[in-house]
Design a protein that fits this description.
The chain is of the alpha/beta class. It contains 24 helices and 21 strands. The strands form 3 sheets. Strands 14, 15, 16, 17, 18, 19, 20 and 21 form an 8-stranded mixed beta sheet that branches. Strands 7, 8, 9, 10, 11, 12 and 13 form a 7-stranded mixed beta sheet that branches. Strands 2-1-3-4-5-6 form a 6-stranded parallel beta sheet, sandwiched between helices.
Amino acid sequence: MIFVVGIGFFSLCFLMTSLGGQFSAKRPVDSPFTVRAEVLSGHESRGVLRKISDMLEVIMKRMDALSKLGNTTEAHRLDELSSALDRIQPVGLVERIQAIAQNMSDMAVRVEQILQRSMAANRVREGTLGQCETPKDPRYPDCPSKMDWMRARWTSDPCYAFYGVDGSDCSFLVYLSEVEWFCPPLAWRNQTATPTLKPPPKTQAAFRSDIGALLEQVGAGKESLSFMKRRIRRMAAQWASAARRLDDKLRDHRREQKRILVHVGFLTEESGDVFSPKVLKGGPLGEMVQWADILTALHVLGHDLKISVSLKELHGFLGVPPGRGNCPLTGPLPFDLIYTDYHGLQQMKHHMGLSLRKHKCHIRVIDTFGTEPAYNHEEYATLHGYRTNWGYWNLRGQQYMTMFPHTPDNSFMGFVAEELNETERLNIQRNKVNNMAVVYGKDASMWKLQGKEKFLAILHRYMEIHGTVYYEAQRPPEVPAFVKNHGLLPQQELQQLLRKAKLFIGFGFPYEGPAPLEAIANGCIFLQPKFNPSHSSLNHDFFRGKPTSRKVSSQHPYAEQYIGRPHVITIDFNNSEEFESTVREIMRMNVKPFLPYEYTCEGMLERVHAYIQNQDFCRPEAPFPPVNSSWLGDAPGPFVLPPDSSILAWGANASSYAPWPPLSALRLLASPEGQSCVRACRRAGLVCEPALYRFINIREAFSALDLQCDGLESEMNHLFPAFSAEHAECGLQRDPLLFSCAGSSGRYRRLCPCRDYRVGQVALCRDCL
């Protein structure tokens, strides 16, 4: 009998080999015995079943003959055959037979699945004959064109087959009505087949001080990730102390824990990751500083955090279906918030398909230089010349988050610099070397500034100049011989150098980095060049193509405008007399270490907490103005002039509206002609707040400002609402995505929604917490 079984299994081997060809012909990379979940066409499945039937018949005939042979008395024939079998039996035959048997079992399951699907398809065809015609429903105008597209292109992406599309009109309609939303629900489909998933219960977030779990999530394998982990470890004690202080401040506030995905797109291999190889060679570190601080802030605030630095991780976290990204996600979005960058946003567009449009309200884009609404609105940017390689995502302006608070249309995310305790501050003041300067620029290319020799020679007459320029073997020729170059320094050694130096001097590049704030926090005076004219996308290659028209007046506008003298001095480096007198003045000055609250750990935690708990771009906004408003008609409007103030404030009953920032912070003014709302609000000691634009986009706002409208129009214009004095015309904004603090025109006086702000925390109004 053993012999009979052996011959039977050799027949099975033949069967499996034969069948393997059927499957391996489809995908050469698959094993012939691999069971895959793809759906065979009717012709293919019938061919496979027919072959299986033929082979099984052959096996049964062989088994029957062998059985009869076993019942004869000719034992010597059995012995001969058994001996022959022993001679040809390969090593490990039993194990191979067991493996083949298991594969045969799997094949049987697969055949059963094919049969079941075939019968189910037949039932659908029989039960829905005439019910799979393309519906003509005015509520779904794109359905016919989408059906035509599916007929022609459904094989272009494997994700369609993943969702059950098999080339029939019925499968197209099911997909377009249940997976996508271009066709109406089908009456003959069981609409309760897919249960509605309830969102997870809300839990309260608790501050964390242990960073072990965060470090494990950040991962390894890239020098950029190692740099971020070193920074997280070095700052851990300051984050923990800040968390305790903020916890005491927010004791009566409930903080909901959010499910948050952080996808650092610029560090993925698919984006090129040009940063990691340059970490130890003087490359830019500002972005990695900011991302390390964002990760730490989210972790310390107690949120449920997932971190992705590869497309594979992104797919796994989001539930991306297999294919080329044309299909939506396989289920509801498993996150409340997604923090990413422009590279990550492009990757999500490619792999999330239509789901990105559906879930984009959850996205926050870390954007160093800012994105203005005119560049963000795809249609408007295309029509009016604002289209660039970035922007055009049709997000709300506040979904972009910047490194510095230079673009009020965006949210200010920021980063942190190390704080000094009182003992460290006193030691720094005692140990400052009065004639020591450090140059801002660790890459040799930053020393190629034309004319630098002239002002460096002046500085050299008064101070010993130090550099931290990266080099491998030879001293960079761009660095003058009188400069003492330390090479690229680890962070702690750089801090010690800054704590001794009196002056930190910039050459004009890089723009808006973290280093000047770190130098000022260590007691240095930052001397930087003034740009005349200001640098922008209109006149400077670095900004060309960036989605902003912002004019940069100096190397570090935040330091110039928000810190200023005595810590920051901005002058014309081309004026030798002014430069020399400024150097002499600096040597006479004594300044204390200074760090704005918004760049401390507590300041960043406070700001990020406020954004997470209050910014909700997924919730529909209540219409404004309401039809039954008490101030419509003959009433003057919702604005009043508070006592001892020359700026209008919100005076109407705001109980039915709960925007954030609250309406109590709103101040209404009109800019002079040719001035943006960014500048107009700043000159009034306020900040422009785009979230409050919809409350001033009404006729009554013009009346309150004594602007008489002979005509009133509504259009898509990033300068509106605005008043044209030449024609006495008032313009209202038609598209909320174009509400913009940025932008000006000599033709218009713009209506500006300004607000107050907390001292040291420009992102938040006084009532914002």
